[in-house]
Here is the input.
Amino acid sequence: MSTALQPQPVMLTACAAEQIETLIQEERADDPLIQSLYLRIAIQGGGCSGFQYQFSLTPDAQPNDHLFEQLDTLEVSPVHVLVDSISYLYLTGATIDYQEDGMGARFIVRNPNASTTCSCGDSFSIED
Here is the structure.
């Protein structure tokens, strides 16, 4: 992994950045030995449309990861995001939001590279 920050392929809305920071703080409260945590965003095969998004918190970066950061709403705590090289190609230009509604709370991905999206919003396809 390059230690230099990369061009930002994914934009996080203020709501998404705040929720991610909340999740990171909760993880740190559960395990005080955690020094730093990254949000990993990846695309994997699966779902009803062929691909699905995967979000996880990880303390470790991999050699093929791209690192970028976005400040939270108060511009105090940057959210550090990792995207692997393959997912980076499909996520460039995407925006991630966090919404709470009658269906529950969830992250929403608006990806201009997706040609179709499943009605559940969790899977998508990309034209070749």
